[in-house]
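PROTEIN DATA CARD
Card holder: Xylose isomerase
Chain length: 386
Origin: Ardenticatena maritima
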Amino acid sequence: DYTPKPEHKFSFGLWTVGNVGRDPFGHPVRPALSPVDIVYLLADVGAWGVNFHDNDLVPIDATPAERNQIVREFRRALDETGLVVPMATTNLFSDPAFKDGAFTSNDPAVRAYALQKTMHAIDLGVELGAHIYVFWGGREGVETDAAKNPVEAIKRYREALNFLCEYVLDQGYDLKFALEAKPNEPRGDIYFATTGHMLAFIETLDHPEMVGVNPEVAHEHMAGLNFLHNVAQAWEAGKLFHIDLNDQYPSRYDQDYRFGSRDIKAAFFLVKFLEDVGYDGPRHFDAHAYRTEDAEGVKDFARGCMRTYLILKEKAARFNADPEIQALLADINADDAENSQFLGAYSASKATALKAKAFDREAMGARGLRYERLDQLTVEVLLGVR
Ligand code: 3MF
Ligand code: MG
Ligand code: MG
Ligand code: MG
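Structure generated from the sequence above:
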């Protein structure tokens, strides 16, 4: 049974199922849905949560009275459907004011406006229940390095995040930040190109404990990287606060395909990892339906993301229970006391003993590891014959 349930924590952004199919060469192909319509759509397909950028919900030029009316209507839809808002974020990329970045803009007025806009957006997210706040620096980059000093850009980004962490603490909000990396698009290059860059940067902040990452499958694949390895590093560092699931062919434009639609094997190892380690955060799908789809196709897309996740979760359980796979893994990971005595923490006596030990290098090099068999068994689990 692959029916999504609240405990699976499947969420979608308003901008995902609400995507109208506009691209750089083509007009919208689907009518815009209101935020309330989208909440009902997500409830219909069985999602648990809905996320938004400030302006997905409240237009950038809304009056305070309009804002409050919109929030009231949205909250009513949440209450009626039981959907929650796990995460919120700021749109710091659509408006022309941000054409040269927000926190890293050369213009102090733009930088100050970006902080103001983010504080209002944080208030909005918290008001609707969000505990995770994502920062994707979509315009924080350049087309020409003549325009900005990249070291200055890092300092500006740090200054902004430090300011906003203090704001959250000052308000007493229970909110964590999650930084989302992307190598390029819409800018020629975007600063902090990968999750690894973000992890290094976080340690330089005033409140690193408040800040983690939101890795996105497509963004790391655009950079030609192994997404699982990025996620694993974030997890190991205690920084996997959120995740954007979708799919993407390497080194192409930002495709945001349905989760698992392109690289089933990578998606499998990702789901297996999240389930095996007990990742407890939202499974957020940051993707949209093909431009060929109508309203029904959008639901096919959303249901497909969740169904594929649950199928892969079942495959992971099958992999973990497969005696032949487990026997191979036990063999690969077998401990041997004679050698493990040399590993682990340093000591002078250990170093001396290790320097004196004779190794059978040829035997180590000659040993077959049976990864071909292991991978074939994995493929057979995925293809449904095991
Ligand atoms: C763009 C993205 C963004 C971010 C969002 C923050 C529009 O490629 O991935 O989606 O995920 O701004 O959550
Ligand atoms: Mg993206
Ligand atoms: Mg995108
Ligand atoms: Mg994303």
